[in-house]
Amino acid sequence: MAAAFFAVPLYVIVTTSFKTMDQIRLGRIFSLPDTWTLEAWRYAWFNACSGMNCDGVGIGFRKDDTQLRDAVQAALKALVADGTYQKILQKWNVTQGSLTTAAINGGS
Length: 108
Description:
single chain, mainly alpha, 0% strand, elongated
């Protein structure tokens, strides 16, 4: 019984995150999405607010860890350059707001 106490809200959160706003407004919180969409995830990823800015989310590194930061940036640039990044976004239908480069401090 205790498991259901925690599982039901989790089920509602996960299934709601894949619904369109119109489906959410219907108020059928326990139903599965009629149309599965990543609209909410896309909005949260690219328009998330952090403090006063709504620039989406990014990858954070410690200021003194420049070696890791530069390695991740190089890997992301390679994915963009060879088209892999775009293929991944197209496969999952999340091309809106896609990046063209891996900028450091791109949100500031």
